[in-house]
Design goal:
Keywords: Membrane, Transmembrane, Transmembrane helix. This is Cxxc_20_cxxc protein. The protein is α+β, with helices and mostly antiparallel strands. It folds into two domains: about 80 residues, no CATH class; about 25 residues. Helix content is about 35%, strand content about 35%. The chain has a four-stranded antiparallel β-sheet with strand order 1-2-3-4. A hairpin with a 3-residue loop joins strand 2 and strand 3. The chain is rod-shaped. The mean pLDDT is about 90.
């Protein structure tokens, strides 16, 4: 089974007030999803975000955002530069492909040698 990992793209400290404790210690983090398997590593274009208060350790959900938090979020969202969505094959994949090619070539050689 493939493993999924969220890789941090950008972190920013916000000076907006927390809706829960009214403290000014918020942290905005953007993540990009990466999938790691035995045959390939895949970088997706899925970007997620999280706003967390460092004082009360609560997650700030979009329902409770103020206009200021939304403005700052939009600003940082435009600044995030995600990696391209690509698939990288592992060495195990290439070894299996070479093995398959050699088996097919050997089979074709045996068939042709028996006909002649």
């Amino acid at each position: 089974m493939a493993k999924e990992k969220l890789v941090v793209l950008k972190e920013a400290d916000l000076t907006n007030n927390c809706p829960e404790c009214f403290n000014q210690e918020l942290k905005l983090t953007f993540y990009q999803k990466h999938t790691y398997g035995r045959l390939f590593d895949r970088t997706t274009k899925d970007i997620t975000h999280e706003i967390k208060c460092t004082k009360c350790n609560s997650l700030i959900y979009p329902v409770t955002w103020t206009e200021d938090i939304e403005r700052v979020y939009d600003y940082y969202r435009r600044m995030v530069a995600p990696s391209k969505a690509i698939i990288r094959f592992t060495t195990l994949f290439y070894i299996l492909i070479l093995l398959l090619i050699s088996v097919v070539a050997t089979g074709a050689y045996v068939i042709i040698a028996n006909v002649i």
